[in-house]
Every structure is written in structure tokens, then in C-alpha cells.
Design brief:
The protein has helices at residues 22-34, 49-69, 84-98, 112-116, 120-129, 138-147, 188-197, 199-203, 216-225, 240-249, 264-271, 300-312, 314-327, 333-348; strands at 9-14, 39-44, 75-80, 102-107, 132-135, 152-155, 174-179, 206-211, 232-234, 252-255, 276-278, 292-294. By secondary structure, the chain is of the alpha/beta class. A six-stranded parallel β-sheet has the order 2-1-3-4-5-6, with helices on both faces.
């Protein structure tokens, strides 16, 4: 069992106690569901550059202290992404290798191909200095195999909490849910444009709930400018019970992203038995098949058609929702724990 290995693992990643984002939620779920002893160094967080720099420096020295005095640690498991996250992670990787530890780079999020193109030699050097890379889907595994020649590469599904399903309120409208960062890359503005183009039609058929941080003022201004307040609601950044309520109440989940790894939010919606409307980017096509509808990023006509299909056909929603529940088993804690234990064991051989 992984409980026998937990004292040997030091995790490194973002602030996760009050998770704001998919990576933080994954780390929180590791602490809650998998590791009886969760040794962790936080290397990112804060609301401005000074706070972020302090968090990274404090985390580096905390890791130095732990590796100096905690002789049980054998593996450093670094949760990372692209751009600044990867540059920061490289410093922690080098420190871990200085102490002779095995290092896993667990790469989350999309955009790594674009990032790799900015400095391929250095990025490949860092990747190849790790002992293993964990990625989120088969397509990403194939990509990392094509740019590395040293580390073992594993697929590990993003862990999600067991769903807390409850009775939902009845509604005559189809309730759509978007959870994610409020910015162009998540496609939220495309979604609002679609609703604005056919406002009279959709105002009687759907309501849209939006949860997340980011460009909040721009979002609110667009909702007001398009006069969508009667059926589009911004719920703020949501977590815990509020997120559970929104997942229980929605009829379908929508995420029109331009780039992704494999979004935790999609997996969470699937665990609640919801159809998924999204784009074929990153690992999404590997989990959205008969349980949803895929459309190209930025294709407003296709987004409109997908919403109309889901909103107009309750039996199709239920059928797709059942497919989502069938597909999600591999992302629940027991399955992820078994695979993660095998990865750790293999690296320690």
C-alpha cells in the first residue's frame, strides 16, 4: 500500500490548502485520500510578484532543510506546468538531484508545446534530468516521449474526490455550468458571444452558471453589455460545498478551451454524471466520447449547435450523463492510488 511509501515522498507544488485551480485540487486530494503522511513544500502562491517570489524562496529553503534532515525522503514529486511554473520547478529539481533524490516531474496543464518551442535545448535538458515524467493522457505521453531520451514516462489520471451526489431541484431550463479561469484561453468569452447572438432563443431554454477567478470585471462587463443577466450568473470563485451544489444542479458542463492538459473540472463533472461540451485539445478527446460533444475552439456556430442539442433533448442528456459515470472510475482515489504506488515502486528499484 502507498501508506508504506508516504514517508519516502516529498511533494512540491502550489498552495493547495484552499485549492484555487485544478493542480491545487489534485494535491489537496492526494493529501486527503492517498497519503497518510503528506510531506509537501509549497513553491508558488501569492497575489503579486513580491509574494510569489517570497513563496518560491521560502519553499526552496524549506526543501533544503527537509532534504538535509529528513533521511526518509527518497523521491521528490514536483507538480509543474509550463513557463514560469517550469522555470521555478527546475530550481527545485536541481536541489533534489544535488541530494541524490529521485525526481518526478508531474506536468499539468496545456500549452507545453508552445512553451517548449521558446527554448527547446534547455527545457529538454531539464526534462531529461528527471527520473520520471507523469503526464495526463496518451497523447501527452507520446509528445514527451518524442522530446526526451532519459526519463520513464507514465500516464496517471488526475485524482478527483468521490462525488457527493444529492437531490437536485427541478427546472424547466437546461442548467449549464462553466468552472475555470476567466480568460480568453478558457473560451468563456466565446460562450457569451454565442448566447448574445441568439439571446431571445436561449434565454427561454438555458441558464448558465460561471465559477472561477481571473478577468472577473471583464466578464461582468460583457454580461451587462450583452444584457444576459436574466439567464447568465457569475457565482464567484467556487469550492467545497458551493461547487458540489453547482455540480449537482447543472444538466451539463461546458468548457470551450483553446488549450488544456486534462481539466480536473471536466473529470469532476463526469463524476456527477454530467454530459460534457468541450474542445478536442490536450487529453480531452480521451475522456469525452459518447458522453458529450466536442467542437473546435472559437467555432461559435458549433458551440451554439452543441448547446442547442443538449438543451433540447433531456433523454440525450441522461444517456450522456450515464456514459460519463461509467468512464470516470479510473480517476477515483482507489484506482489512482494503485497506479501511483506502482510508479513510485518502479522508480525506487
Amino acid at each position: 500500500m502507498i501508506k508504506d511509501l508516504s514517508s519516502n515522498i516529498l511533494s512540491v507544488g502550489c498552495e493547495y490548502k484552499n485549492p484555487k485551480g485544478g493542480v491545487a485540487q489534485v494535491m489537496k486530494n492526494y493529501e486527503e485520500y492517498i497519503f497518510p503522511e503528506f510531506k509537501c513544500v509549497v513553491n508558488s502562491g501569492g497575489n503579486n510578484k513580491v509574494e510569489k517570489l517570497f513563496k518560491a524562496l521560502f519553499g526552496w529553503f524549506e526543501m533544503l532543510f527537509k532534504l538535509t534532515f529528513d533521511k526518509k525522503i527518497k523521491i521528490v514529486h514536483i507538480h509543474t506546468a509550463s513557463y514560469n511554473s517550469f522555470k521555478r520547478s527546475a530550481l527545485f529539481l536541481k536541489l533534489a538531484k544535488f541530494f541524490g533524490k529521485k525526481v518526478i516531474l508531474h506536468i499539468h496543464g496545456g500549452g507545453f508545446k508552445e512553451y517548449y518551442a521558446t527554448n527547446p535545448n534547455w527545457i529538454a535538458k531539464i526534462l531529461n534530468s528527471s527520473d520520471a515524467i507523469i503526464t495526463l493522457s496518451e497523447s501527452w505521453k507520446e509528445y514527451y516521449e518524442s522530446i526526451t531520451n532519459g526519463p520513464a514516462i507514465f500516464i496517471l489520471e488526475n485524482i478527483i474526490a468521490n462525488p457527493n451526489i444529492s437531490e437536485r431541484n427541478k427546472s424547466t431550463k437546461c442548467n449549464l455550468l462553466f468552472l475555470g479561469k476567466i480568460d480568453q484561453l478558457k473560451g468563456i468569452y466565446d460562450l457569451l458571444k454565442v448566447l448574445n447572438q441568439d439571446k431571445l432563443y436561449f434565454s427561454d431554454k438555458i441558464e448558465l452558471h460561471i465559477g472561477g477567478g481571473g478577468e472577473v470585471e471583464k466578464l461582468k462587463e460583457m454580461i451587462s453589455k450583452f444584457d444576459l443577466e436574466d439567464f447568465v450568473y457569475y457565482d464567484g470563485f467556487v469550492s467545497g460545498k458551493k461547487k458540489e451544489t453547482l455540480l449537482n444542479e447543472c444538466d451539463a458542463y461546458i468548457l470551450p478551451s483553446y488549450t488544456e492538459g486534462l481539466p480536473v473540472s471536466i473529470l469532476e463533472a463526469m463524476s456527477y454524471g454530467k454530459p460534457i461540451l468541450s474542445t478536442p485539445v490536450g487529453g480531452i478527446p480521451e475522456v469525452v466520447k459518447e458522453n458529450g460533444i466536442l467542437f473546435q475552439p472559437g467555432d461559435l456556430s458549433a458551440i451554439r449547435n452543441a448547446i442547442d442539442i443538449i438543451a433540447s433533448n433531456e433523454s440525450k442528456r441522461k444517456e450522456m450523463g450515464l456514459k460519463s459515470k461509467e468512464m470516470i472510475e479510473g480517476y477515483l482515489p482507489a484506482k489512482v492510488e494503485t497506479k501511483l504506488e506502482k510508479i513510485y515502486t518502479q522508480i525506487l528499484k
